[in-house]
Amino acid sequence: MSVWELNGRKALVTGGARGLGQAMAEALAGAGASVMIGDVLDELGTETAQLIAKDGATAAFTHLDVTDEASWEAAIAATVAELGGLDVLVNNAGIEITSLMVDIDPADLRRLLDVNVVGTALGMKHGLRAMRPDGAAGTGGSIINIASVAATIAFPALGGYSGSKSAVDRMTRIAAAEAGKLGYGVRVNCIYPGLVPTAMGMQLANDCARLGLFESPEAAVEAVVGLTPSGRLGEVSDMADAVVFLASDASRFVNGTGLAVDGGMGS
Ligand SMILES: NC(=O)c1ccc[n+]([C@@H]2O[C@H](COP(=O)([O-])OP(=O)(O)OC[C@H]3O[C@@H](n4cnc5c(N)ncnc54)[C@H](O)[C@@H]3O)[C@@H](O)[C@H]2O)c1
């Protein structure tokens, strides 16, 4: 088997009902993995899993609220039971709340941190527990956290979001260090996606215009493209292919790091 293939691997993708997570689930399945989608959007998540299964892959949906510990325990158990193990966990579920620092709303910020930081931390906790030698799956694996270019640059109105993704970046490295030290056989990495025009990406452009930072959502997008050496926005497949790489043995000596998939916008 080529080191780029994922035949026989079992993957759980959080926030996989739509957007980047959907593309990641599709790409993992395309590379040969069985895929479980975990999301709070039950109907859409089920449809996405059915769409992937139509192409002949093994794909299923399980309800998962990443902020809730019991929900994680149930989703990991369902993945191990239905797919027969867990080798790949993509902590992709996230939300974005755009605000100037002078207007930060504590309730909004707490919600953002709950999903992006606590949700990702719980994912690593339960993923590592399941994958380590004494775990329910027990065969090691790869955890991929979805941070953001916002963790590497200063873009206006992204204070809370950037803070949350910087936390994801740092936690990734600690988890990799612990997993290595304690012999879990699990690599932990993250990616920093650039702006992709998903529901979330377009919301950011609209919010930046609403806050008076740019003349229009189009001007906000143009500014991002202008800061990007590759001269375009990201596409969902750009992020999905990077996740397949980090899930595969092609990245076997890549550990505890962040991969910028942003056309060169960040550093
Ligand atoms: N789109 C971008 O430009 C961009 C750039 C950098 C990073 N990201 C990151 O990529 C990830 C996916 O973003 P997207 O653009 O696809 O967003 P999206 O809003 O289109 O999709 C996010 C998915 O996460 C799910 N989700 C939200 N809260 C959840 C929870 N508590 N439990 C389980 N699932 C939950 C949603 O239901 C949805 O299916 C996020 O972590 C985001 O921060 C996106």
How would you describe the overall organization of this protein?
This protein is α/β, with parallel strands linked by helices and 267 residues long. It contains eight helices and seven strands; from the N terminus they run βαβαβαβαβαβαααβ. The protein has helices at 19-30, 42-54, 69-83, 106-131, 159-181, 199-210, 217-226, 236-247, and strands at 10-14, 34-39, 59-63, 88-91, 141-146, 186-193, 258-261. The chain has a seven-stranded parallel beta sheet with strand order 3-2-1-4-5-6-7, sandwiched between helices. The longest helix is centred in the middle third of the chain and has 26 residues, at 106-131. The structure holds nicotinamide-adenine-dinucleotide.
List the keywords.
alpha/beta, binds nicotinamide-adenine-dinucleotide, 7 strands, single chain, 8 helices, 46% helix, seven-stranded parallel beta sheet, 267 residues
List the helices and strands and how they pair.
Elements: E1 10-14, H1 19-30, E2 34-39, H2 42-54, E3 59-63, H3 69-83, E4 88-91, H4 106-131, E5 141-146, H5 159-181, E6 186-193, H6 199-210, H7 217-226, H8 236-247, E7 258-261
Parallel strand pairs: 1-2, 1-4, 2-3, 4-5, 5-6, 6-7
Helix pairs in contact: 1-8, 3-4, 4-5, 6-7
The structure holds nicotinamide-adenine-dinucleotide (NAD).
